[in-house]
């Protein structure tokens, strides 16, 4: 007999996996954020945009599915966060609307606003998308100011509706860490998928600085996370209290998560290192896999082991846990059967991805007839 | 449940959702229809090996790509607006509504986005067979996504397969199949996708007609008209059939909407179906709301009764019966529903009070009441009426419902005629000579958009004030944010969507003028 608690954990695992995949796939955004600074000429820019453009829909779809899965599995989060932190989510949405059309329209004749405008759209999405998502996710650890009434309806305690998250240094640190991780992954992806010596050289040179900035902000966030108080939820009464070193305790209390986390971080660093020091073009696979595993394990730290995954600093007992925010047993079970299809979906995505990336993008391909962004 | 109800906030939140939905629906139906037309064309290329068909396929694929991107952009906003603007709703029914949305992402969006990349970039990288399969999977993925979002919408119009849990203050799913095979959802899915097929066909037909008018691309135009004509004719017949079926279902599950779109105030036997009509204000009122009467009306006698019950003697209730009640026909007045809804809400308040005071036994007893079938059938089903102040508030905007319905129906029959004539002229080899008809077809490109938007206006405005039929009015569902914030985002979205639409139309027209690459 599958218990409600098991399914709540199962669905948090799925959410964590989707979050990991989303952050990895934001290599598309990371690459876009360098659209004006990386390529040395127009052809290089075209190759870069096309390499990223063939993958933008995966990121977009993962973001939509991430939202859908949260709605289905933890609807109270969906209601509280989206309806409360209104401006942050609206800003994120805006940055993604302009991306969706930018690839298709940028090089088309009669696009009204000119290629430069659509390239600026790509830049804005590339810069603000990862930063804002990282900042919003940081509130899973730092908390937000909201309360729930007896009908579980949300009231946001500040008129800024989420923008106040930008005033918290730890939130900003994770936002910047996610942005520079996306840029790092973006560079590694371009190194892997474009056959142009000069562009590859430029990417490698940029990689060092971006990975150092990423690691700096990531360590800043991590250290402050591990030494700070965390939001603990009593598994029996549901009462929420502040616990010293809560997130450190979560890592030591869940050794598998700790191992995963360390392995993920090692993978990220290894991918960067083999590219910088050995000239490998396969760094994206290590850093990419490391990104997925690191984010996955951080989400488990946020939600497992009696922790509130969406804490309220305004009213501690309005904080959301995987228990009080979840869907019913029946819905989670139904959705679990649907989730069994995920390996099949990953398999066909992998197959299609490999089919398209079977050869590296070249300047000749861009000039040849076909669908070019 | 509703503290400090702010009508301006509700109106702006509705306006923002309507704006997004209307823009979204400018792009989605073309994706639904054109994806299948492309798949059919590529199948002909695959089976015949004729390179001309590849050229035709790739031309329509270019136009498909221009439209596809903007549909995705507006779609993501719709999904997240359930949370940003309707957070109380998201919790109240998230246990049911969230599941189809998540399944849409997992099953449909990935299928669509994965294989659309192969469709565009795989011509020289994958086998012809795999490419063809990809094109079909894009079409299937797009239409699968329509299935799940329409299941969710159908459930809102006809909530089934759930029970209310007073502990969590929300509805919880107990039967997935009742949600999936909800009769409104099935009707809505078939009607909506077939209207998308129709729109895609008219798009191909109209552009092909333009090429014939300009005496260029005759090969492409005639073959495209052949595919789009047949697909469009079949689709338009299916639209009419499923539309009829939808109306029958609505007469049972949403009788107020049904009476509103026929502007039927006094229920009667041998009720006639209004084929054409113009409304004007009447001196009569229901409560404080003016009734409408017909200034002009062309009616098919008895047909509304036949349509709803298969017999001219069947009584079709009007808005007065549905609001004021009609005991002889067993129709409960709204005032009674309000009382029952308030009684159900009172039980919920008592439950919350008992929980607050740790009166476990009392809370347990009330909890059992919410599981009782009799209570659910006679009281909880009117839960949303507790938030209704005056009975006439349950009447939607009658002129909007009436005109949007009749415009949609008239256009539906017009489309059958256009597709039929196009095929007739094509097969008699007289199409290029019928310039008047080619112009008619070209001008008709916009009409399926008008019909489709009218259909959604009817579906959504016709069920006001409900966001979930009888269970939750829009006023109780809205997120508690400042009206000014929603107004600001409304105008931000309006400007951005319009700018993007202008670019889309401009690019599309240019690509059509350029024609297929040689």
Can you describe what's shown?
The complex is a heterodimer of chains A (373) and B (518). Chain A has 373 residues and is mainly alpha-helical. Helix content of chain A is 69%, strand content 4%. Chain A has one domain (4-228, 308-367). With 518 residues, chain B is mainly alpha-helical. In chain B, strand 1 (162-165) and strand 2 (170-173) form a beta hairpin. In chain B, helix 6 (183-213) packs antiparallel against helix 16 (447-461). Chains A and B meet through helix 4, helix 5, helix 6, strand 2 and helix 13 of A and helix 2, helix 3, strand 2 and helix 18 of B.
Topology, element by element:
The complex is a heterodimer of chains A (373) and B (518).
Chain A: H1 4-25, H2 27-32, H3 42-53, H4 56-73, H5 75-84, H6 86-105, H7 115-142, E1 146-148, E2 154-156, H8 169-193, H9 197-227, E3 229-233, E4 240-244, H10 246-253, H11 255-278, H12 283-303, H13 329-339, H14 342-356, H15 363-367
Antiparallel strand pairs in A: 1-2, 3-4
Helix pairs in contact in A: 1-4, 1-12, 1-13, 4-5, 6-7, 7-8, 8-9, 8-12, 11-12
Chain B: H1 7-48, H2 51-85, H3 87-121, H4 128-157, E1 162-165, E2 170-173, H5 176-180, H6 183-213, H7 218-253, H8 255-261, E3 273-286, E4 289-300, H9 303-309, H10 319-324, H11 334-356, H12 360-369, H13 373-378, H14 398-427, H15 435-443, H16 447-461, E5 466-468, E6 472-473, H17 474-477, H18 483-514
Q: Helical proportion of chain A?
A: 55-70%
Oligomer: heterodimer
Which strands sit side by side, in order, in the main sheet of chain A?
Answer: 1-2
Number of domains in the coordinates of chain B?
A: 3
The share of residues in extended strands of chain B comes to 5-15%
- Biggest β-sheet: strands ordered side by side in the sheet of chain B: 1-2
Number of domains of chain A: 1
Count of helical segments of chain B? Answer: 18
Structure classification of chain A: mainly alpha
Series of secondary-structure elements of chain A, N-terminal to C-terminal: HHHHHHHEEHHEEHHHHHH
The value of Rg of chain B in angstroms is 25 Å
Tally of strands of chain B: 6
Output the radius of gyration of chain A: 21 Å
Q: Roughly how many Å apart are the termini of chain B?
A: 64 Å
Report the sheet with the most strands of chain A, covering strand number, pairing sense and barrel closure: 2 strands, antiparallel
End-to-end separation of chain A in angstroms reads 52 Å
